[in-house]
């Protein structure tokens, strides 16, 4: 393989890597409801029963039939089966959530009823005071499609439908490999060496995107070390390997030669986006995906939202995260034939997106306070008042 291919359009690159990841998505598994939060539905959530499954009272009161006064012939509480109301002018005391007896014609609220011995009378409200079967969902109705991330609300809905477990795709395992002998792991930068900013931050970003990542590994700047680290990461079961640095073709940029030695094929090799050039995604013969991120921190984050977010989505069976639409409060320049991802922050005072300062490729100050990247298409600039896409930071 070589590193000289023409850059791929930014939007096309995202779609391409998402398709590649979807083809090797993590397997579907069944997990108990209490373990499903944050995972992704691999099968649609289908109503296994009408919701509610039977008519239920919305209020405390009496369920009656026929003309009043009603003779009270029993009581129905939540959790018990209700006998039919067979005779006219009879009623049962009923609790909120209890099953409404067959034959009920009206429910009289407790506060609207007048008791006289074993009889009750009063004016029921005009609208029905109970929920009918299927009010919320019909039997067999698809409530959520595959690819939806499970939330606490969805778990509760699944439980109400009779599910004990869900078929989901779990978080794909990701590994971070940090290239660069110039990097320090501790202490102050100096004497030509800088602190590694990506090793500590990328695992957190990956976890927020929906991957499982416990940490990172520093890799020596030799071809042999690169090859060994990639082989070890692949053998560990990681579905996604993120590397930082080495995406150029300089004297210590060993990623391209390492990929060639391992027989990897490019999914995308360089993307027409600034900053963030160059970035890549490759696939090993064993199916693992490698995301090559630039070594400069801001460029690496551009690559993260551009390629890694679609990769994680594809591996879990989700769609590419949809961008927000925001209104600019200041001009943003274009970058010629490249898509420009411009760091912006949403101003809480007026809701407008404005560019931040300190946005050099090696800078983190602007990134740390930004909401995300405003997407300026190739060949365009943007002015205040323009509506643009916003790709949010994890």
Description:
The protein is α/β, with parallel strands linked by helices. The chain folds into four domains: 8-26 and 171-315, MoaB/Mog-like domain (Molybdenum Cofactor Biosythetic Enzyme, Chain A, 3-Layer(aba) Sandwich); 32-47 and 138-169, Molybdopterin biosynthesis moea protein, domain 2 (Alpha-Beta Complex); 56-131, Beta Complex (Molybdopterin biosynthesis moeA protein, domain 3); 324-392, MoeA, C-terminal, domain IV (Beta-clip). Helix content is 20%, strand content 29%. The chain is built from seven helices and 28 strands. The chain has helices at 10-23, 152-160, 198-209, 223-235, 255-261, 297-315, 365-368, and strands at residues 8-9, 28-32, 40-41, 45-46, 56-57, 61-65, 70-76, 90-94, 106-109, 113-116, 119-122, 130-131, 142-144, 165-169, 174-179, 183-184, 194-195, 216-219, 240-244, 265-269, 271-274, 280-283, 289-293, 324-327, 339-346, 353-355, 372-376, 387-392. The strands form seven sheets. Strands 1, 21, 24, 25, 26, 27 and 28 form a seven-stranded mixed sheet that branches. The protein has a six-stranded mixed sheet with strand order 9-6-8-7-11-10, with no helix packed on it. Strand 22 and strand 23 form a beta hairpin. Helix 1 (10-23) packs across helix 6 and helix 3 runs parallel beside helix 6. The chain is elongated and about 95 Å long.
Structural domains: how many? 4
At the third CATH level, what is the topology name of the largest domain? Answer: Molybdenum Cofactor Biosythetic Enzyme, Chain A
CATH superfamily membership of the largest domain? MoaB/Mog-like domain
> What is the global morphology?
elongated
Main beta-sheet strand count, sense and barrel state: 7 strands, mixed
- The CATH architecture name of the largest domain reads 3-Layer(aba) Sandwich
**Number of distinct beta strands:** 28
Individual helix count: 7
Mean pLDDT value? 94
Query: How much helix, percentage-wise, in residues?
Result: 10-25%
Distance, first to last CA: 32 Å
CATH class of the largest domain: Alpha Beta
Cα radius of gyration in angstroms: 30 Å
Q: Unreliable stretches, pLDDT < 50, 5 or more residues?
A: none
Beta percentage is: 25-35%
What structural category do the secondary elements indicate?
alpha/beta
């Amino acid at each position: 393989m070589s590193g000289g291919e023409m850059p791929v359009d930014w939007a096309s690159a995202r779609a391409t890597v998402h398709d590649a990841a979807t083809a090797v998505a993590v397997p579907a598994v069944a997990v108990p409801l209490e373990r499903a939060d944050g995972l992704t539905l691999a099968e649609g959530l289908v109503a296994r029963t009408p919701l509610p499954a039977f008519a239920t009272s919305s209020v405390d009161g009496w369920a009656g039939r026929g003309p009043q006064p009603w003779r009270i012939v029993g009581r129905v509480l939540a959790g018990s089966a209700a006998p039919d109301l067979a005779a006219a002018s009879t009623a049962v005391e009923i609790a909120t959530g209890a099953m409404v007896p067959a034959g009920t014609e009206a429910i009289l609220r407790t506060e609207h009823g007048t008791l006289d011995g074993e009889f009750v009378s009063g004016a029921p409200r005009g609208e029905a005071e109970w929920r009918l079967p299927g009010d919320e969902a019909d039997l067999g109705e698809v409530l959520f499609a595959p690819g939806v991330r499970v939330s606490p609300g969805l778990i509760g809905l699944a439980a109400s439908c009779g599910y004990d477990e869900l078929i989901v795709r779990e978080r794909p395992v990701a590994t971070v490999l940090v290239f660069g002998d110039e990097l320090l792991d501790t202490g102050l930068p100096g004497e030509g060496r800088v602190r590694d900013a990506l090793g500590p931050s990328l695992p957190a970003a990956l976890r927020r995107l929906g991957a499982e990542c416990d940490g990172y590994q520093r890799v020596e700047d030799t071809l042999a070390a690169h090859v060994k680290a990639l082989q070890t990461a692949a053998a560990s079961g990681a579905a996604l390997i993120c590397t930082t640095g080495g995406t150029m073709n300089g004297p210590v940029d060993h990623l391209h030669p390492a990929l060639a030695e391992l027989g990897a094929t490019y999914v995308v090799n360089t993307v027409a986006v600034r900053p963030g050039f160059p970035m890549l995604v490759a696939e090993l013969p064993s199916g693992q995906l490698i995301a090559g991120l630039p070594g400069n921190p801001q460029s690496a984050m551009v690559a993260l939202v551009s390629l890694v977010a679609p990769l994680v989505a594809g591996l879990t069976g989700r769609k590419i995260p949809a961008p927000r639409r925001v209104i600019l409060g200041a001009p943003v320049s274009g970058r010629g034939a490249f898509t420009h991802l411009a760091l912006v922050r949403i101003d809480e005072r007026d809701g407008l997106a404005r560019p931040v300062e300190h946005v050099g490729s090696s800078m983190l100050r602007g990134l740390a306070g930004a909401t995300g990247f405003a997407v300026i298409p190739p060949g365009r600039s943007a002015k205040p008042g323009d509506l643009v896409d916003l790709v949010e930071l994890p």
